[in-house]
Specification:
heterohexamer, A mainly alpha (129), B mainly alpha (541), C mainly alpha (962), D mainly alpha (112), E mainly alpha (93), F alpha+beta (158), B: 541 residues, 20 helices, disordered C terminus, F: 158 residues, 3-stranded antiparallel sheet, 5 helices, globular, binds sodium ion
Amino acid sequence: MMVNAADIPLWAAVAVAFFLLVGATLALIGAIGFVRLPTFYERIHAPTLGTSWGIGGIMVASMIFFSVAASRIAIHEILIGIFVTVTTPITFMLLARAALHRDRAEQNGKAPDKHTGSGSGPEEIQDEA
Amino acid sequence: MNGWTHHLIIAPILIPLLAAALLLFIDERQRVAKAMVSLAAAIILCFVSIVLFEIESGPNAFEGVYLLGNWSAPFGIVLVLDGLSALMLLLTSVIGVAALVYSLARWHAVGAHFHTMFQLLLMGVNGAFLTGDLFNLFVFFEVMLAASYGLLLHGSGPLRVKAGMHYIAVNLAAALLFLIGVSLIYGTAGTLNMADLAARIPQIEPDRRMLMEAGAGVLGIAFLIKAGMWPLCFWLPTAYSAASAPVAGVFAILSKLGIYVILRLTMLLFSDGPSAGFGSTFLLYGGIATLIFGTIGVLASQALGRLAGFSVLVSSGTLLMVLGISDGAVSSGALLYLVSSTLTISAFFMLIELVERGQDAGANVLAVTMEAYGDADEYEPEEGDGVTMPGTMAILGTCFAACAILLSGLPPLSGFIAKFAMLSAMMGTGAIGVPPTAAIWTLVILVILSGVAALISMTRAGIRTFWTSIEGTVPRVLVIEIVPVMFLLALTLALTVQAGPAMQYMDTTIRTLANPKLYIDAVRNAAVIPGVEFDTGKEGH
Amino acid sequence: MLLPFVGSLASAFLLNTSSRVLPSWIAGATALLSLLIVVAAYPAVSAGDALRFHVEWIPQLGLDFKLRMDGFAWMFAVLITGIGFLVVVYARYYISEEDPVPRFFSFLLAFMGAMLGIVISGNVILLSVFWELTSIFSFLLISYWHNTAAARDGARMALTITGIGGFCLLIGVLLIGNIVGSYDLDKILASGDVIRGHALYTPALVFVLLGALTKSAQFPFHFWLPNAMAAPTPVSAFLHSATMVKAGVFLLARFWPALAGTYEWFWIVGACGIITLLLGAYFAMFQQDLKGLLAYSTISHLGLITTLLSLGSPLATVAAIFHMLNHATFKASLFMAAGIIDHETGTRDMRRLSGLFRYMPITATLAMVASAAMAGVPLLNGFLSKEMFFAEAVETHADSILDRILPYVATLAGAFSVAYSLRFIHMVFFGPPPTKLPKETPHEPPHWMRFPIELLVVICLIVGIAPAMSVGPFLHTAVSSVLGAQTPEYSLAVWHGFNVPLMMSITALLGGAALYWVLRDYLQRCDDGPPIFRRLRGQRIFERILVEVSWRWARMAEKRIGTRNLQPQMRWVVATGFFAGLLPLYLSGFETRPFAFTGVDTAFAALWALGVCLALGTAWLAKYHRLAALVMLGGVGLIVCTTFVWLSAPDLAITQLLVEIVTTVLILLGLRWLPKRSEGIDDTITLRARFRRFRDLALAVACGIGMTFISYAVMTMPVPDAIANYFLDNAYSEGGGRNVVNVILVDFRGFDTLGEITVLGVVALTVYALLRRFRPADDSMGMPEQQQIQNRFDEERPERSAGDTVRDYLLVPSVIMQWLFPIIVTFAVYIFLRGHDLPGGGFSAGLTLSIAFLLQYLAGGTRWAEDRIRILPLRWMGAGMLTATVTGIGAWFFGYPFLTSHFQYVELPLIGKMPAASALLFDLGVFSLVVGSTVLILVALAHQSIRINRLRTIESDKAKEA
Amino acid sequence: MEIILSIAIGVMTSCGVWLILRPRTYQVIIGLSLLSYAVNLFIFGVGGVKTNVPPILTDGVSTSSLADPVPQALVLTAIVIGFATTALFLVVLLASRGLTGTDHVDGRSDPK
Amino acid sequence: MSAIIIFTAVAIAQLMLAAAMALASIRMFRGPRAQDRIIGLDTLYINAMLLLVTFGIGTGRVIYFEAALVIGMLGFVATVALAKFLMRGEVIE
Amino acid sequence: MLPYPILTLMLVLMWLLLNGFTLGHLLLGIVVAVFASWAMASLRPEKPKFGKWYLLPKLFGIVLYDVAVSNLHVAKVILRAGSRKHNPGFLAIDLEIRDHFAIAVLAVVLTSTPGSAWLEYDSNDNTVLLHVLDIDNEAAWRDTIKNRYEKLLMEIFA
Ligand code: NA
Ligand code: NA
């Protein structure tokens, strides 16, 4: 299937552009945060911007675009959204827990021990391998 | 070759493939069943090869073209059977049967899936011999290589693994070069079919042709690595000598595959036309370097396995030189040499293990690996299924002597006939009144010197092995181990006695190769089977 | 004609008994039969025409199995079979029971056959075939007692020298073939003038002579013969007096009409002959070993024959042929006598032997007569031919220094010869009784052992006394067959009157006797070998050189120009690949296109700026930061995927992505077994290492630049009139699919796919087989550090049990991963089914399903996963391979070639038109095989962890028990 | 686009070549992976570089404008084979590491 | 008009996503620890996927969707394996 | 025959989303979905025990909204990371829900929401350790999680 962007009505084009840009902006902000935030535990929050509404925005844009252009409901993008939403947390959880373990094992900064819900992020150390 | 018999062309590929597929269904513990399936396949394969060879050596020899998927060339993949490929198929299957029988004594049980990999190796080799398509050639090269990796590593152990790693690393790099070469050729000539490519070369504009030649050059390196040209050959003696005996035996054919492809492609693409003679100087010098290196290596080798490995290089070097001077009569001698040296080296590799078994060298390595790495789910290789030979030493000695004679090119076996055929074409009655050039003299001297080196080295090794063994323990050799060796050596004898017809075949083959038009026309004119309209669809094209 | 030769060979190889009587009877019978047949051929031969026998062998190359017996050949044939027969008789008593008798006779007969082959070959290539055969069998005969080092070394040296000589001869006859245009002996002998006038004459001559001179042990190749005396005496008697060494001079005589008569011939052959004649005789005097003496004497006599042949005069040639005959008779008998002495006393050292006459008078008498013949005493055959030699020596042939010194040399050599003959007799048979012999009380041998000597000595006498009547006609037949029209007038009389040659003979006789008298005491004591030269032994030099060249140099050279390390090999591969690509372009003057930056998509460029950085990062970090490098490699792979999408290849993108995922997991699975590596430990960089790195870097950069140029050049060149258009035009109408790439994969070029999945299958099997034997290095044997810490943590706390941490760790993720399983399975089916029309297909689907399985292993661990899903990867693989192949074969039943696809649209109720292509079935095979292989690889790797755990448990149990 | 792709191929080739010339097995396997990327892109590129014309037939679109499907098919085969051989090399390097105790390509234990 | 709006938005979005990818790979370089790099890769995956979707919008084709879907559904597998490797030193136990 | 009817239904839906709706694909989708459910059955996963499953859309809506809000919040935090310092911190929470499936949903929700991340779960005492990007009001966070999410989840998964 191939559709032509010129065929869709203006309102749809504006909506598509809006969602597209919202999504891309969120993804970009997430990436910026990922670079700028100082500790690992803070950094893991940033990319979720991209994986939540960042994806959402772009998927919505795509859905609108193809549905309007082909004049039939094309919402398979929703699958991508669902899958990313479900799978990304796995990575983050596993990584965060691994980081926690490493910090504890290396007694690195103020990595929280179990139950002590306090402590800020550990100091950054360089990785060895 | 009509109807069902036409499909015989593809049989050398399908028989081992089907056998391999069946073998996957048989449990690893049912070793007898596996062996039976594998052996049956190899024997059928041998039979088919003989039939194909008979067809090609008969009065109505022709280029048999098989259009896979019923797509006409150059769009589909074609298989082409001609004198050369029929010869190589026969050689492969004969060696295959010998090595397989040999392996049944013990090696096939030393690791998992020996037979499957063995069959697929045969499939890869046969496919590479038959295919008329460059990329398909790559695929079959890879099949062959993948199986050879597995077989080389068969039995494991530090030596094999190290040799295997080098072998694999080098051949992976070679595979990448292969791909670069093929894609360059496709990008500049717009085809992958070898016949079509040959036909297109004259029409390619110069700019493109230069790139095409660059592609051919890169491609050539990939084949030369396989053929073992210096300085791309250092992996070879190590790998071949590290392989288990039956595997090394069948590996003897692999380096010839590289030679085969170079012969095929140079004759087809570069025998005339604007790119004529491309790369031949390189082959000549490369061959000389290889032969020198091989000769030196033969002299320098202490272990028999390495000696055999370097003999492979000697053989390759000789053949490359001959390809480099690209003379018809010499080439047909070289073809005989190819057959003879392959049989010899194959037999020699298998013999070495039997001989060294008396010295406990090879057996020890095996014992060590078995002891250290055997697992609970590992089974021990058994010794018993076969009858040991009486007069073992005498037979081993005779076989060894035969190998020595063959390798050094002494009469009366085919090693001599082959060398004589080449030398005679270069400076004997084949070249009456043509004074040998410097290149010819170099070649002749090197060929002779390599024979001398083999003679010196083999007598040294033979004396050490047979006559100065301190304990003189007679190795335990099973009939099914020595018979394949004797069989291959007997073939060299047969080749000697039947040298006349053999040379006739080689001459015809080379003459056909020298006329690429035959090949090109055969491929291009091969007609698809017309489609039959069915009610709801159609069959064929 | 053929019969004796074949018969002897065949019968020889049939022998396999332990008795020594039977083999010797067979051998004797064969030899006698051969002799009789040869003799029976005499009338035909003497009629002047050669007997011929002809079978085609390799007609294209001019190599035929052609036998040709003329008078000369006949004479040699008689010699070979006759002496052969006698030697067999002799050997019957000589060879002891313990030795492998059949082998001896088998080799001996085979040798006899080969030797006969040489003399009756009618084709020079055939001749060289037999020539090398004699070398081989002589090797086997000399080394008959191979448990002694002397026999082995002597045999090897003989083989090496005569073998090389044989190769030279081959080159020589090839050159002659080039000149004449035929290898037929008749033609060659008839074209003497053409050969001598040809530019290739000199090389041909040199190569032929190298063959002949090595075989006949002529200077400077003489040294192998004395060492060959380690052979059993019958062998020496046969090979080293009568036959093999005669092959060289036979050859000279055979080619005499074709090659002789030129200045080169005279100089080369003459110089060698004269030096050999003199040196051989001189050396012979100083030998302590009986056989050594005889060997050097043989060398000397062969030198004599060579000298005669060099002269180029027909008369000299007559003398040469006559002396060949004579020498064979007396020398064979002497060898046999020496053998008897050795046999009876246990030693051949002349210093220990003495006064044997009283123990074995008959043998002594026979030996005395024979050595008198050797010394050239009148009334014996040796005298006659020597007289002829002296006569020729006096004649002027080609005026030169050689020619002028020849008479003196001849006389001197004659004197030496008298001296050593005298010494042989005197020292062995006369004087006081021997003491301290290895064997006590020697006595006469059995009569039949002595019989051959008696017969030969009688012949010596008969020929010596009545030459013209006895040997005359035969000699004439031989001579005239060599010389043909040039056959000179000669007389075989005992008495030629009192002339110069006789003077020379007398001088030699007296001088020799005097010489022996003077040297007698010295010889009784001295070491083996002549003074001065004793140290300079050819054999030593030869072996030294052989070892030096063929062993040390070779090993050094192999190290220099070869390697056993991987890095240099890879360097060569890369460098040759680079040059193979660029050299043709450079040589043909290829002009690169100027780079154009137009039409570049910014986002795409940005993407690749990233990709380039990641690639560089990967290369940079791969040594110390493996995980980081792997992560970056993943990044590069992702960008490659994106590129595929960008550049119209969605299929590639999907496949690449899936492969990427699986590969990353694979490498991670492997990473656990690699050693820890941290920066700084092994960082002492030498200057050499620095240079190597720089070189590698330069090579890498050069390759990169080369690839950039070539790819730019080829990308900017549209593919000319490619097969692609056909595919695009016909994929739907003929292949029934819209996704052209997939139609190519499963239909147009389905055969490639079949091969490609086979590769995957084989690799999986290899991985599986290799990992069954896998054992990690000691430092990887332990549990990973993380697990140790976590287990310790769990064990230290009372409320926890080991494994809690990992269970909690995976608790939430594993729930999700489990529920993803059916979803991914569904997705795999989706990918599979849409392949023919849209991106996807069997391979992608197979990988997807494998990932679904992989995820379960990740989530629950191997045990958990295998408790629930029993995948039988081998079955999947076998089924896949079978399905794909059988689908292909199915086309046969419709009369089409392998893999011809069949497709049609099927009208299904409710659903409508559905495409049903047999290619889909093929793709199903692909799918199945990919699943099986990938899972097999992953599982085999994954299994290592539990395998090692088990291994560890077993070992710790063992340690506890101990 | 061609220029970008060419440079990308060149850089990946350089990195790959550099890595396969290194002494550690891990470097070699990473290098081979990089090289296969480069080579795959190269094969892909010889068919010409075209955006948004995937060789998937749609009614009414002329076939002549579509991207060359042949190199794509070749790359697919190359990817599969590359995948297989990477897996193989990985296992071999593991076996070598297990048997020799080192990850040096020649099984040498001394750092060099 | 519609076309211009959409193409502009797509182009901008693509550039932004490319920038996001660049930022993600900065983390892959800088680390400092393995977990950062791995999240960097994950982010790279997500952004690449988004890029593919925008590419689909820009070209009006749906056939690029599957590639994006594959990333969305299976892209996490590699990073999960990496994470587990960090935590346990072993990917599959 | 149908071990997981809801799953099967979802898979059919997924199939139709992927392929578009035709009768053929509905049938094919059902076949595939049933097949995939069987595959799932072999894994013997813990079956989620649904209680008031109809509350699921409510949860979905809440989460969608919360995620959007946190998106904005976190975006702000990131964009002015220099000027106003946020206050990151860890947070340990005792959970009451025990159903693994429900815990998984909670984990996905919390992790997908920018600003909170699921670090460590301890099955012994059923606690979870979270990391929060801006933990100005710790009690509010606890409240949100316990009352807004956990309670709802406990109702859904009885
Ligand atoms: Na505990
Ligand atoms: Na979050």
